[in-house]
Every structure is written in C-alpha cells, then in structure tokens.
C-alpha cells in the first residue's frame, strides 16, 4: 500500500545519529561504553512523585481525564508561569499535553497552514524539522554562529524569513547550553512583531539556568498575544517517561488547541497529571535536587577544560549539555565522535547531528555520575590533545 508523501518525508535528511546507534549496538553486544549522548537524567523520577501517582491511580483517576488538563493542574501551571514571568495567566491560557514534544507539534499546527514556512534555529533539538513538517509546514533552518556563542541574530533571521509565519526558539538551548540574552530576545520579539510571526518558545529547560537568567519572551511587551510557550515536566522533574507538558498562549489559541487535542491525543492520564501537580507544588527544593548533579558536573568540566587549550567550551549557561569546539583537532565533530568511540568507548554526539551551525563541535551530556564523568572528560581532552599535536594545528 502506498503511504502518504507527508509521512514518508517527515525526515530523511541524514540524521547524523550514527554514533549514537553504533554505541547502542556496542552495548547490546556486551561492550562497556560510557554514554554522554542523550538528554536523560541518570536519576529516576523522585519516589515522592511516584507515591503521588500511586495514590491518584489507586484512588481511581485512571479513566479518561479532562482533555485540556485537570482544572487544578492547569491552575498550578498558570500560577507558576505567572509567578516566574509576571504575565497574568489563567487556566484558559494553558493546555496540558503529553510532553513538550506533543506541545511542539500542536503549537506548529496552530501557527502554520500547509505549505507555510516555520523557521527554527540551527543548531537544533533533533525533532524540530520533522515536527514542523508533521504539522504540514515547510521547515527552514536559520544558522547561528559559534563566534556569536550561538546567540541568534534577528537580522540573519529576517533575511531568510520569506513565506514564514512562525519562529521556533529554545532557551536554555539544547544542544548548545546557551541562554538567550535580553538583547537577543528583545530583537527576536521586535522581528516577530514586525513580521506578524508566531513565536514558539521551547522553555523545557527553564529551571536549569547556571549563568544569567531565563527570560520568557512571552513577558516582553505585547508578546503574550503572539507567543506559544512549550513547557514540560521531563527535564525539571526527571519525569521524561511520564509524558506531561503544556502550551501556554492566548486564550483563543488555547481554545483551538483543545479542539486539536480532542482529535489527536485526547489528553494526558489523570494520575500523571496529579503527580505533576504534586511535583510542581513541591517547590524549588525538588527542582534543585534534580539540577544539582548538572551544576556539580559543569563545575568539574570547567575545571578540567581550563587545564588545556585544544578544546574550547561554548559558554555553558544552562541545560544538561556542554558544547565543545574541537576544530583545533583538525577533525569534524562526526570524525572525532567516531574515533573517540572506537578508541576509548566514550560516546558523544557530533555537533553535525544538530545541524550545520555546530559542525566541528561535539555535544557532551552531563548524564553519568561525577567520577565517571570527570574521568571520561579527562580522556576526551587527552585524546583531543593527541589529535591536535598530530595535525600540527594546536
Ligand atoms: C529542546 C527540547 N525540547 C523538547 C523536548 C521534548 O521533551 P518532552 O517531550 O520529554 O517534554 C526535548 C527533549 O529532549 C528537548 O531537548
């Protein structure tokens, strides 16, 4: 049977994830590999959250839940967003979704008609282009520059904006770890207002800011009417498998998004929503507990990297990743990652997996325990130094 062009062409550009799949095959075949690849915590969902989930499920919250989300979780998310951004927010501005990924798809479906262009910043989280295409739009990557620490430039976005109706941004950023500055966000807001773009702001790492501060562009003047914010419990509360996130936006957009949810996801399980509500109301202590390993490992990494001159660390301001510039080794990110896997059984992601802008870089996820992390990073630095010496580039 013929499958639709739509579904068979969602992806297809080389996805650059070969190193990741190769590492997984090596593990399956019994090799010991240190995986510094994907964005998954090395701790599991907190037992207190699981207890809340258990009480809710045993209490009977296992039937169809309210499609927009339970009133109390929507209220909790609205109050949290209002407290963090100062923007008046009620439950009518909130749709609960099965994770940030479903929110990204829904937001683009709300913003784009078939054939419209949806812009996104490169380097990018792997699903972005496919998600925009899944919503029926054309996905167009806008390059950022290592020399600008991957802060987007509104002027460069505008040059490539023909036919576009939306712009997807992500701060704190995966894969670069960069937090967008007030100036960057103000320039982007100005651009969206001039061009009448929906700004889709992926803020799933908003509790993981190590330097500077997180600004939600929805809080900039006038932007609450044209911003759709994507949030999630995955990263802030180590609830990746629970699939619970949200969209925050103007009431009319949320009304239509609820209609979309009725015809696609039909909501999020009630016991998951109750657990999320418990977690959000548990306050910052729980979030800090989840962030603490990344703060420690970032400090370890800064210390190790400060003792060498071959690898350059892109400012690691937020999220659970380090973006390392390895161009001084003379290798591409992909060649470096493959060689590191072959020689030292350490798996990192080539920058090229995240688009063209991060070529010559590698992304290191800070998701293994401290000692192993420090040892692996030390080996990685020595490996880079050896390569640089050989190529005569250092
Ligand atoms: C930037 C970014 N956005 C969205 C997601 C999706 O998160 P989830 O669907 O688990 O909420 C991820 C997951 O890694 C991510 O890194």
Account of the 3D structure:
This protein has 394 residues and is of the alpha/beta class. The chain folds into 2 domains: 5-44 and 285-391, Aspartate Aminotransferase, domain 1, CATH 3.90.1150.10; 63-282, Aspartate Aminotransferase, domain 2. The protein is built from 13 helices and 12 strands. The strands form 2 sheets. Strands 2-8-7-6-5-3-4 form a 7-stranded mixed beta sheet, sandwiched between helices. Strands 1-11-12-10-9 form a 5-stranded mixed beta sheet, sandwiched between helices. Helix 4 runs parallel beside helix 10, helix 5 crosses helix 6 (128-134) and helix 11 packs parallel to helix 13 (370-391). The chain is globular, with a radius of gyration of 21 Å. The relative contact order is 0.17. Bound molecules: pyridoxal-5'-phosphate. Pyridoxal-5'-phosphate (PLP) is lined by residues 39, 99-101, 125, 170, 174, 202, 204, 232, 234, 240, 245.
